[in-house]
Structures
1.
Amino acid sequence: MERIASAQLPTAEATFTMTVFRAEDGKEHMVLSLGDLKAEPPPLVRIHSECLTGDALGSMRCDCGPQLQEAMHRIAAEGRGAILYLRQEGRGIGLGNKIRAYALQDQGVDTVDANHQLGFPDDARDYRLAVALLCEMGVCRLRLLTNNPRKVASLAADGIEVVDRVPLQVGENPHNAGYLATKRKRLGHLLPP
Ligand SMILES: Nc1nc2c(ncn2[C@@H]2O[C@H](COP(=O)(O)OP(=O)(O)OP(=O)(O)O)[C@@H](O)[C@H]2O)c(=O)[nH]1
């Protein structure tokens, strides 16, 4: 993981430091950070997977956009923390394939079966990327903003101590109710029924 550049990024929530890293496959990933990440208590961290449709366009098919906004808001409120923005669009299958999966979901297939019909696993992400970024920043203990127990387990398996899982339940709407229900029932996300 190569550190490329860092600069200040003023936003409505806070002025974050944005740092770009390049992985061995050439993909660029981003960390938005605030305050001293090595101080106690362990910082609030969000590991966010790229979602062009939700993060940039405000799509209501998923909860990604509101989760990103809420993570920025909570980190700003604490005055320290980080968002790792991983370029693993579409749970790792890429934008074109995610839209193929959306087209299948438009015909009634759920998000997991749509991935399978396209020949992908339900979740193709690799959190070793996140571990490499955390190690680069010297963060070995954190409080993780997520509803996804798989994320917590992946980090723990690679030696990152998740001292607390902080739920991030925002952005439910009539368009994504079925999608969220599938995340809960088939992907193990800790979401209210
Ligand atoms: N393949 C696929 N990817 C999707 C779909 N909807 C959203 N995504 C992607 O899912 C990723 C976000 O993952 P989620 O499963 O929503 O949440 P998570 O990161 O596992 O868990 P949280 O930390 O609780 O948010 C982003 O990369 C989105 O682009 C879909 O229907 N199909």
2.
Amino acid sequence: MTQDPLVSFEGVAKRFGTYTAVQKMDLDIRQGEFLALMGSSGCGKTTTLRMLAGLEAPSEGIIRLSGKPINDLPSWSRDTPMVWQSLALFPFLSVIENVEFALKMRGMGRAERRARAEQWLDRMQIAEFADRNISQLSGGQRQRVALARSLVVEPQILLLDEPLSALDAALKVRMQSVLKQLQRETGITFVYVTHSQSEAFSMADRVVIMSRGRIEQIGTPQEIYRTPRTRFVADFLGSSNIFPGTLQADAQGRAAIATDSGTFLLDGQHGAAGQAASLTVLDTRMQVHEQRPAPGVNAVEARMIGEEFTGATATLYFETPRGQEIRVQKSHEDLADLSVAMGRSFHLSWSPADSHLVHE
Ligand SMILES: Nc1ncnc2c1ncn2[C@@H]1O[C@H](COP(=O)(O)OP(=O)(O)OP(=O)(O)O)[C@@H](O)[C@H]1O
């Protein structure tokens, strides 16, 4: 992967009548990266992808591919094939004919296109199904045909719109590693639209989080998870406890935030006293104690109201006397020394270093 942008969106907006689906957007997509566009339904992910594919024209702004504006380039002459959830395979063609199709359209001779298609069927481990009808394949096999059909033309960039959403959970996970490995091996830039955090975070080098037609944050999965930039991102990821409040200094002049659940210390300076902000703390960074912890950490007393087990981890739910819900994620070993019981009061703590601030 290089740092050079393969694609640049410069002030690109899309309006449908009076409705703005994508607000003026600047976005660079780097050569060779796996970029995920993520956000809830209707936030403009698909519209962004369709503009890149040439299926929608931007209402304003410029889209560049390798530095050249492509706004006026028709979809078929762009090097930007797309894979959809529906896959859009041709039901009247065999597997290999589906894969060959784009090469045939480009005028490649029969022997050469057959050889190329066979290579890709091999690579996708579906060579044995070459002569089958599409209707005789499983969901996962169809996915592989759709990928082979798009990749056979060796594009610079592949656009994928929720390609795994129709698959069952186990197959989804398997296809995620197929996709990631394929992307690494080919070095082709992948732009992947999804509303699934696990898909985006497990495959992408960088994730773009969108809301209401705007980019809220761009970063590596780790950056976004650890340091959400806005309240929206923290809410959307759902992995942090959020305490809205007001910045202030504590009695010793240290930076703190006053919230409904108490005043909590921050690490370093974060803005002027009196400013509104929200404290976010990852649910994995919170500790549970039976006794009040020693001073120096942030702590709040709360009653246990629920628990949930997922594999190796447990999620415990608490409620403060002011009615704020707090979620804590722990391994079973971490909880071994605690006598957790519904309705019981505990002290929840976290270090000021794990206190992260977001503005609205
Ligand atoms: N052709 C169109 N005409 C009018 N409005 C449209 C059109 N296409 C999309 N929109 C609207 O633009 C907004 C963004 O749509 P888009 O499909 O990009 O969202 P999305 O983030 O991909 O959502 P989803 O995850 O549901 O597919 C939506 O409110 C949608 O209704």
